[in-house]
């Protein structure tokens, strides 16, 4: 169950961060509401997950997976482009998250 909570926290954070682009500097109401709800929900779920997962592992997974997902959403939904070096960096983030989970001591 803790990893389900962590996954939901990541999804909430990714949704909130993606909505940031849509707020146009917080000048649009509904996307701004989405950002606020998404981040509050994400931190609440992350806090619950931290009862059972070490903070070093949970935060690395939360931030790393969120970063990689938002980069992908930027490309797919917002037409942003990433170069080879940026894709390589995202791959390193993913590898780092996997290694933390293999050697996280949990």
Automatic annotation (TrEMBL):
Signal sequence coordinates: none
Keywords associated with the record: Cell membrane, Membrane, Transmembrane, Transmembrane helix, Transport
Predominant location category: membrane
Pfam families recorded: Multi_Drug_Res (PF00893)
InterPro entries associated with the record: EmrE-like (IPR037185), Small_drug/metabolite_transptr (IPR000390), Small_multidrug_res (IPR045324)
Keyword match Cell wall biogenesis/degradation: no
The UniProt record lists the keyword Acetylation: no
SUPFAM superfamilies named among the record's database cross-references: Multidrug resistance efflux transporter EmrE
Subcellular location: Cell membrane
Topology term for the membrane: Multi-pass membrane protein
Residue ranges of the TM segments: 32-50, 57-79, 85-102
Superkingdom per UniProt: Bacteria
Family of this protein: Belongs to the drug/metabolite transporter (DMT) superfamily. Small multidrug resistance (SMR) (TC 2.A.7.1) family.
PANTHER family found in the cross-reference section: MULTIDRUG TRANSPORTER EMRE, SMR FAMILY PROTON-DEPENDENT DRUG EFFLUX TRANSPORTER SUGE
Protein name per the record: Multidrug efflux SMR transporter
Organism: Kitasatospora putterlickiae
């Amino acid at each position: 169950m803790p990893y389900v909570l962590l996954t939901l926290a990541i999804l909430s954070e990714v949704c909130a961060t993606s909505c940031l682009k849509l707020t146009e500097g917080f000048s649009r109401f509904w996307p701004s509401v989405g950002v606020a709800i998404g981040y509050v929900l994400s931190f609440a779920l992350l806090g619950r997950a931290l009862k059972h997962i070490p903070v070093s592992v949970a935060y690395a997974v939360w931030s790393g997976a969120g970063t990689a997902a938002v980069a992908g959403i930027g490309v797919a939904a917002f037409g942003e482009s990433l170069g080879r070096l940026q894709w390589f960096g995202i791959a390193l983030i993913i590898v780092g998250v996997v290694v933390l989970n293999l050697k996280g001591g949990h």
